[in-house]
Design goal:
The structure holds two protein chains of two kinds. By secondary structure, chain A is of the alpha+beta class. Chain A is built from twelve helices and 14 strands. Chain A has one domain: Alpha-Beta Plaits, CATH 3.30.70. Helices cover about 25% and strands about 15% of the residues of chain A. Helix content of chain B is about 25%, strand content about 15%. In chain B, the strands form nine sheets. In chain B, strands 5-4-23-22-21-6-7-18 form an eight-stranded mixed β-sheet. In chain B, strands 30-32-31-34-29-33 form a six-stranded mixed β-sheet. A five-stranded parallel β-sheet of chain B has the order 10-9-8-16-17. The chains are: A alpha+beta, B alpha/beta. Bound molecules: iron/sulfur cluster (3 copies). The site of one iron/sulfur cluster (SF4) has 13 residues of chain A, from helix 1 and helix 7.
């Protein structure tokens, strides 16, 4: 088995929906040719269509240990990376600046929409990236064996030399976090910023997150924040656990304020955001996690500090990230892998 | 020059060129052809040398620190990465020093817009050379010009105007020095030496909270955002921090984990409301009613901080019942009284403007809050008692009906506000942009004053709209207006725009049109109006660091009047914004990454620099360089034209334009923009000992504060919060009474019944136009900057959006993504609609700042608006209430606008614009 596993915990009760993570990732990794439409990191409003559209309903993952491949999302499902006629309007006396075709979908099409229940709106932001699963469906599906999981840190990568663009991985991933670069004929996805982590620098999406809600470290490092949040305080859950891929991106589940006139009551009786919806996303455990978080908040508001909330405050980078330095990996040429040392 | 795409290709595509580019595999692979039967990629993988591909992508040749100047209040320090001579990306520097170990730090300050500013540096909107208009204004037809030709044209015109029509026909408009003071001052200095009119911005944009100058005698004083963490009760009131304070919002959500309760008051279920403990979905414009109900509850339940209000507010001061005026000594305007409960005597209140005591310390007195008696034959009563009378109608029941809130929620809110300390209001444009913003501000401030929260860490009324706080103010002023403010023509832009355009406010105030009040105010010398000669009109306007036209209320009126009257409009800009497009001469400026400057904000207590990541690209120059050359050109032309000095009567100033450059350059002292930056730093107590070069190492916290400018010290290990000088050191407040002043007995306030905070409904017209037109700040732009940025637009819907509640949409047969027309008697716009369940019914929202040239089939976001001036904001000559640029003057409010909406079918000509994909001549190829 692999020696270590990187994980990320995202506290959804701090997310601003600002997409700085999205832009950070875009500018670093997906700003090249054939990549305009792809957002390895995206942020979607939930409930909502998601990106690609309806990704959570089209399938993928495992059922009874068997791969359940789905259709590949269409171009329309990802939304259009449109261009504009700026020069024409500004410098040549041309017509109004417009997208070059009518826009029918974008990766953030239903931003802030959510849904109504009994006349009241509810929603939250869900930032998503590849889950670097412990049991990656994408890997299992690749006939060319071009997807692998790094033994030293559990990051799942698509070999950009050996990938032949068959896209079985896209069908297999239940999170639809693999994209196809048509220009290059390659499947591409989030690389968990391994070049940065190897130098002791945290992922761009995490380091650039002004909401400061991302915690990164080795899940198996008992000193890491991610370990504590997932295994000690047990307040972070993976998305769609029933898909069988064992995701390594975890979320502190969201809650909205009470409904009108309910101030003072628990958000669990008569909640604004239906619990069913959260159970759908995060599994049965979510109710329990929310109950505990609510109790911790109450405790803090009554003047007794809460250990887990103090950790979630994440006062500085040292609290949020525990990245071992491994300079040697920078020059890696599939020679032997150095054992891990904390920086 | 290499393009950005070329560089990215190098790292990404080109490196992979060996492996079948352009090939799209769809056929089933021949599995048996693989020799990988023994490969187990879940456990080990032998072919890892390719991984260098991405490692190479995360490399650079140099990194330089800079920031952005868009009036966002962020003031975030960024690192810009350069590879092969091209800026490829940016990342937050994230190195603000910690204030102390308990407070969360400020890192990483930034947002998604800053994270892609390099898109503008190389973008298709970038201005690359001076342009002179050849088509109609706004048409977008230009010819390239040399700098010499463009500057000569401008210099000659400015000089002609001065000699033919007066120097006050030349107007200068630039905003927010804090975001780049060197660039600002370069132009303001020129205006100063040629007698031009310098126009205000903070009041015009309605970011000024007029209640602060009225109540506190300050422009805006707020805590730095780290202080939010010290709070136990945070009320987001009209402020959607998740969208408009992206770098700061975490402090509020982290405070919640530290035991604060978070309340969000807003008509829509916005991006901050989702994280609140209590969400109050209030009816638009009724916020003051809610505040007054809370004030009433606090007073009725005796939850107020009695010693505090006796010392720090005007509530114990005596008012003569009959006249409504404060009790004063005969013939004296600025001395006041309370009754000391201990001795029963009427005593002079210490610390007022006319008081000999320069402290508000009560010296053992116990002012009676409840006094009501006859004094020298006059019935007198305390402000506190008058306030109680005024508050009587604001019962929780009555206010629940007005605001649309549940009584239970209001009651608990009021009780908690009165009991959880420290408590603060985080205030924003959502409530500040109303016509009655002065009353709304005053009602809110009343809450935090009653509860003794002002001047305390974690408390207060903290207003954040616009980056107006130029911390090193003294140095800035000395560089901006070197001969002092008395020798500068300052103009409130709201008034200037109203008078010089065809805007007409149809409302009557106390039976009189606003023109009546405007004329009175000018006649009394309360508000200036230029040109002084009322037969003249503004003739030239120079705009830099701003997008005046696009952002102006009354867009349609301005385009058809003021804009036609101006003979010369010059825009200095790095991109073609709406104002630039509608100008006569466009001068290409360096971007935020190609200049030297400084940057500060209300939101934190640090200063950090802009830098030249690369020298100005193309044929652009920094703002500082442009004004330097323009000054030189003016002197050159004055010499060549043999112009005699102009006698400027208003100041008795012989203006010799052959010397303008000499003066502008400080007699040769300012040889570079860095000299200017160093001058500002050296002449301000906040930045004593700092030099521009040192800031390159990282943000530095201010070392002290200028007592005249600010109201608290900067203390190591403590977050800045204002008014500690008043609350701790008993220094008088900068008001007529020397106290937080809720009672304003100016005759106009008395005439209009606004001597105390009350609730006034938004200006109505709802019968004809049922929807409020709501144009808040949003996450996707900073005003108009980034509105046209492709990377941002791809994460929206590509063109401007009007948001609408599903039930309103259903009623009108409108579906999501339909074209719609929004209209009233002032103007209209056509764009697309998005159905938003969290929107309030009977309200339409369009986030502000959309450029007129993008996406709209007709009009623009300001088309249905017009300029409305509130009479109480025209007053002057009252103690602390006097015109001062960006401190006091009418605000350009814009929330009380009503519109209607209908589904729209584009015309055949418009369909051509929409369906242009078939004919993309000139479309961008990036
Ligand atoms: S950058 Fe952080 S706060 Fe912003 S959307 Fe991404 S995860 Fe949320
Ligand atoms: S999220 Fe999808 S792409 Fe990523 S490792 Fe899991 S299955 Fe593979
Ligand atoms: S970990 Fe790195 S590659 Fe993955 S989404 Fe975040 S920024 Fe992008």
């Amino acid at each position: 088995m692999f020696q270590h596993q990187y994980a990320m915990v995202l506290d959804l009760n701090k997310c601003l929906g600002c997409q700085t993570c999205t832009m950070a990732c875009k500018k670093l990794w997906t700003d090249g040719d054939g990549m305009d439409y792809m957002y390895w990191n995206n942020v979607e409003t939930r409930p909502g269509q998601g990106y690609p559209r309806k990704w959570d309903q089209i399938g993928g993952g495992f059922e009874n240990g068997k791969l359940r491949p789905s259709e590949i999302p269409s171009r329309e499902d990802y939304g259009q990376p449109f261009q504009y006629n700026y020069e024409e309007r500004m410098f040549q006396g041309g017509l109004q600046v417009m997208p070059h075709e009518p826009v029918e979908n974008t990766p953030n099409w239903d931003e802030d929409v959510g849904a109504l229940m009994l006349g009241e709106n509810y929603y939250f932001y869900l930032p998503r990236l590849c889950n670097h699963c412990t049991n990656p469906a994408c890997l299992a599906a690749c006939p060319r064996n071009a997807i692998y999981k790094r033994e030293e840190d559990g990051i799942v990568l698509i070999d950009q030399e050996r990938c032949e663009g068959y896209r079985y991985c896209m069908r297999a991933c239940p999170y639809k976090k693999i994209y196809f670069n048509e220009l290059l004929g390659k499947a591409q996805k989030c690389i968990f910023c391994y070049p940065r982590l190897e130098k002791g620098e945290v992922n761009a999406c995490a380091r650039q997150c002004p909401g400061r809600l991302r915690f990164v470290g080795l899940l198996d490092d008992p000193g890491s924040a991610v370990h504590k949040l997932v295994h000690v305080y047990k307040v972070a859950l993976g998305l769609f656990p029933e898909k069988g891929t064992e995701p390594n991106v975890f979320y502190v589940p969201p809650f909205n304020p009470p409904r009108r006139g309910n101030y003072g009551k628990s958000i669990l009786d008569d909640p604004r955001m239906p619990l069913d919806y959260l159970v759908y996303l995060f599994g049965e455990q979510v109710t329990d996690v929310i109950r505990r978080l609510e109790a911790e908040l109450k405790k803090a508001q009554d003047g007794a500090p809460s250990e887990v909330l103090q950790l979630l405050i994440g006062r500085d980078e040292e609290v949020r990230y525990q990245i071992p330095k491994r300079e040697s990996l920078v020059q890696i040429t599939n020679a032997q892998i150095q054992p891990l040392r904390r920086a | 020059m290499k393009s950005r795409r070329d560089i990215l290709k190098l790292a990404g595509a080109a490196a992979m060129a060996a492996s079948v580019p352009g090939c799209r595999k769809t056929e089933k692979p021949l599995l048996e052809s693989f020799s990988t039967a023994t490969l187990d990629p879940l456990h080990s993988y032998p072919y890892r040398s390719w991984e260098d591909l991405y490692r190479k992508q995360w490399t650079w040749d140099k990194v330089v620190r800079s920031t952005h100047s868009a009036n966002c209040t962020g003031s975030c320090s960024w690192r810009v990465y350069v590879r092969e001579g091209v800026m490829v990306r940016e990342e937050q520097a994230a190195d603000y020093p910690k204030i102390n170990a308990t407070l969360p730090d400020y890192n990483p300050r930034g947002c998604q817009k800053g994270a892609c500013f390099v898109e503008y540096v190389y973008g298709p909107q970038r201005l690359k050379s001076p342009l002179i208009r050849v088509g109609a204004r706004g048409e977008g037809k230009w010819r390239k010009a040399s700098w010499d030709e463009a500057l000569t044209l401008i210099a000659d015109k400015l000089l002609d105007n001065i000699y033919n029509y007066g120097p006050d026909t030349n107007a200068f408009f630039s905003v927010i020095p804090a975001m780049s003071p060197v660039s600002f001052c370069a132009g303001s200095r020129l205006a100063h030496y040629i007698g031009g009119v310098f126009c205000s911005f903070y009041d015009w944009y309605c970011d000024l909270p007029p209640g602060e100058p009225l109540t506190w005698g300050v422009q805006t004083e707020a805590c730095e955002t780290a202080d939010w963490f010290n709070s136990r009760y945070i009320v987001l009131w009209g402020s959607n921090i998740s969208q408009t304070r992206i770098p700061d919002a975490h402090f509020a959500y982290e405070a919640r984990y530290n035991g604060a309760k978070l309340v969000c008051i807003s008509p829509d279920f916005n991006s901050s409301a989702v994280h609140a403990d209590l969400f109050l979905q209030i009816n638009p414009g009724t916020d003051a009613a809610l505040a007054l109900a809370v004030a009433k509850h606090i007073i009725d339940s005796k939850l107020y901080d009695e010693p505090y209000i006796k010392e720090q507010t005007d509530l114990p001061l005596l008012v003569v019942k009959e006249t409504g005026r404060f009790l004063r000594p005969e013939g004296v305007a600025d001395v006041f009284y309370y009754r000391d409960a201990k001795s029963g005597q009427v005593k002079e209140a210490p610390g007022s403007m006319g008081s000999k005591t320069k402290s508000i310390s009560l010296g053992g007195d116990d002012p009676d809050l409840h006094a009501r008696f006859t004094h020298n034959g006059k019935e007198v009563v305390t402000v506190f008692e008058l306030l109680k009378e005024k508050l009587a109608p604001y019962t929780i029941e009555a206010v629940a009906a007005q605001t649309g809130l549940a009584e239970n929620d209001i009651r608990l809110f009021a009780q908690e506000f009165g009991t959880r300390r420290p408590a603060m209001i985080i205030h924003g444009a959502g409530t500040n942009h109303w016509f009655h913003n002065d009353l709304i501000n005053r009602a809110f401030i009343l809450l935090v004053a009653l509860t003794g929260n002002v001047g305390r860490n974690g408390g207060g009324f903290n207003h954040y709209v616009g980056q107006e706080r130029i911390w090193p103010e003294r140095g800035f002023r000395a560089y901006a207006f070197p001969e002092g403010p008395k020798k500068q023509r300052f103009q409130n832009t709201t008034l200037w725009t109203y008078v010089h355009s065809s805007n007409k406010d149809p409302h009557l105030y106390n039976g009189k049109p606003i023109e009546h009040y405007i004329e009175e105010s000018i006649k009394n010398g309360w508000m200036p109006l230029y040109p002084k000669n009322r037969k003249q009109k503004p003739r030239a306007m120079i705009i830099w660091r701003a997008n005046y036209l696009n952002q102006a209320k009354g867009n349609e009126y301005i385009l058809n009047s003021l804009w036609k009257d101006l003979d010369l409009i010059v825009d200095i800009n790095f991109r073609m914004d709406t104002t630039a497009l509608h100008s006569d001469v466009v001068l290409p400026a360096a971007t935020y990454y190609e200049k030297i400057d400084l940057n500060t904000t209300d939101c934190h207590s640090y200063i950090h620099p802009f830098s030249k990541v690369l020298d100005p690209l193309y044929d652009s120059k920094t703002d500082w360089e442009i004004f330097k050359e323009l000054s030189a050109k003016i002197s050159q032309r004055a010499t060549e034209r043999d112009l005699k000095p102009y006698r400027d009567e208003q100041f008795g100033w012989e203006r010799d334009f052959t010397r303008t450059y000499f003066q502008w350059s400080g007699q040769g002292k300012f040889k570079s923009d860095e000299d200017a930056a160093n001058f500002i730093l050296a002449n301000s107590p906040e930045t004593k000992g700092m030099q521009y070069g040192m800031l390159q190492q990282g943000p530095r916290r201010f070392v002290a504060t200028d007592e005249e400018a600010w109201t608290s010290d900067i203390k190591p290990g403590q977050a800045y919060t204002p008014f500690q000088h008043q609350v701790e050191r008993k220094k008088p407040w900068r008001t007529l009474t020397g106290r937080q002043q809720f009672y304003i007995d100016h005759p106009w306030f008395l005439e209009l019944g606004e001597q105390l905070p009350i609730y006034r409904q938004p200006l109505a017209e709802s019968a004809k136009y049922p929807f409020f037109w709501n144009t808040p700040h949003g996450r996707w732009s900073i005003h108009s900057t980034w509105r046209d940025s492709r990377y941002q637009l791809r994460l929206q819907r590509g063109i401007p959006i009007v948001y609408m509640h599903p039930d309103d949409a259903k009623e009108r047969g409108i579906r999501d993504n339909d074209w719609v027309k929004v209209f009233n008697d002032h103007g209209h716009l056509v764009t697309k609609v998005q159905i938003l369940p969290g929107e309030k019914r009977r309200r339409l929202t369009m986030y502000h700042g959309w450029e007129r040239y993008l996406g709209f089939l007709q009009g623009g976001w300001q088309a249905p608006t017009y300029v409305k001036i509130k009479p109480t904001q025209l007053v002057g000559g009252y103690g602390h209430v006097n015109f001062r640029l960006n401190y006091w003057g009418p605000t350009g409010n814009n929330r009380d606008i009503r519109v209607d909406i209908a589904k729209y079918t584009p015309t055949a000509a418009e369909m051509k614009v929409i369906l242009r994909s078939r004919d993309r001549k000139g479309a961008e190829k990036a």
